[in-house]
UniProtKB/TrEMBL annotation:
<keyword id="KW-0472">Membrane</keyword>
<keyword id="KW-0812">Transmembrane</keyword>
<feature type="transmembrane region" description="Helical">
    <location>
        <begin position="161"/>
        <end position="183"/>
    </location>
</feature>
<protein>
    <recommendedName>
        <fullName>Protease PrsW</fullName>
        <ecNumber>3.4.-.-</ecNumber>
    </recommendedName>
</protein>
<keyword id="KW-1133">Transmembrane helix</keyword>
<dbReference type="GO" id="GO:0008233">
    <property type="term" value="F:peptidase activity"/>
</dbReference>
<feature type="transmembrane region" description="Helical">
    <location>
        <begin position="6"/>
        <end position="21"/>
    </location>
</feature>
<keyword id="KW-1003">Cell membrane</keyword>
<dbReference type="InterPro" id="IPR023596">
    <property type="entry name" value="Peptidase_PrsW_arch/bac"/>
</dbReference>
<feature type="transmembrane region" description="Helical">
    <location>
        <begin position="33"/>
        <end position="52"/>
    </location>
</feature>
<keyword id="KW-0378">Hydrolase</keyword>
<dbReference type="InterPro" id="IPR026898">
    <property type="entry name" value="PrsW"/>
</dbReference>
<keyword id="KW-0645">Protease</keyword>
<feature type="transmembrane region" description="Helical">
    <location>
        <begin position="99"/>
        <end position="121"/>
    </location>
</feature>
<dbReference type="GO" id="GO:0006508">
    <property type="term" value="P:proteolysis"/>
</dbReference>
<dbReference type="Pfam" id="PF13367">
    <property type="entry name" value="PrsW-protease"/>
</dbReference>
<comment type="similarity">
    <text>Belongs to the protease PrsW family.</text>
</comment>
Amino acid sequence: MIAIALSAVAPGFALLSYFYLRHELEAEPLGYVIRSFVAGAVLVFPIMFIQYAFEEEGVLTSPFWKAFVATALLEEFFKWFMIYYTIYIHKVFDDYYDGILYAVACSLGFATLENFLYLWVYDSLEIAIWRAVLPVSGHALFAVAMGFCLGRAKHSARERLWLFLAVSVATLMHGVFDYILLIEPTNKVPAVLYIVVLWMVALLLVRAANQSNRRQFK
């Protein structure tokens, strides 16, 4: 059980550490990063309840609607809402990369608790490996796109547009990922390839956010 617990939480903390260290300006206060992580974890239970209600009522159960609405839109909107009201509106959110860091922290809080509950039920190290590669890293990568848009929103005259894009782009990326898993439940290759592409996009967005910081703050 200890091995399962460690394998459940280790990917989330490892990814959060990686994105925390990629911030090229002064380090963000750990208290706010942890708060974002905990805020994301808190979202697991209400979202699970809503998704359970959808399943029981037979609502949004086709692969497309389940992937893009019952899962992606529901989860990404709640994460966006939590980030906006716990971090975005505060002074600590003051540079382009902050959006990525706090969005990743919130998303990994959600993914880590979700992963722990899933592995607690299935109790399998093999499943733990696949979940680290796919859902946990996926949540972090969707958050990079959301956070990049949030960082732009904070410094743009078109704030509302960037805030809308933060939700919609993350939802689209998440929906495609879930749809691939639903239509190819036994073949993990398409999902892995998609994650590789998302990593490439995420690294470009991280670089772009840091470059924007260098131009504006140095």
